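Case study 2.
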Amino acid sequence: MSKVLVVGSINMDLVAQVDQFPRLGETLFGQSFATHHGGKGANQAVAAARLGAEVTMIGRVGDDAFGQELKTSLAAEGINTEWISSSANTASGIAMITLAGSDNAIIVVPGANADLTPADVIAAESAFLAADVVIAQLESPLATIEMAAQLAQRHGKPFILNPAPAMPLSAELLKQITLLTPNEFELSIALGTPENAWQAALQHYPGQILMTAGQDGAWYTNAAGELQQQESFAVHAVDTTGAGDTFNGALAAFWHLGLSEASRLACAAGALSVTRAGAQGGMPTLAELNAFLDGVQGKTGDEK
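Prediction:
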């Protein structure tokens, strides 16, 4: 399996279930409350680790109880936490999530994630040397992600960027990215192009963009600029939270198999993850993924 280096965010998700959202100044009773380990970086690290990759993570937590719990949890998944630092007098990143029926309202407070600096990445340069592939997201400061891209390029390591949350990307950063993994909206924001022009965007960057498309699977172009589709896997969805992070973590874990096979396995892992509740809670192990693929006998889309 690939040796995966993840540069990214680590959060604690605080989830409250209610019948309806409170109005301004109103206090309501909720039905349930739970905490879940999250953050796009941590999610992708866990997804890759469960699929058998050797994972190292660069990130920051606060010097609070959440920070200690989050770091301990990542270590329990077999992830190397040597380069996860604690920020003094700072809270760990959190997401406050209120669920009412099928709707949600979310407040994200970056906390210590905002303290992850280019210097932190430079200090972990040895981790880049040891990695087979580097993956990052955009919940960390952009300057830090740009430094990660530079180090990956310096040491000849593939650099995967999941551009979420969506933001414009510089031409210089785009040159350093081996593979960009947006959805259609994130692609248009990253490149500054119309959403309906995604096919032209993929062909303009042959082999450099893999666009996720929900039930339509994923689209990419080969080195010749020919459009390719990896069809989705039909499942009964229980909770779609974390499906994209599962996809990206799996893509990194299976990177050594080539883009076509890695995207097939990533789509399968992402589909399997939505059959269970929770982001990290729904992420499959390698054994579970293999059993799932054996069950569908390699078929895709509606053929399953």
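The radius of gyration is 19 Å.
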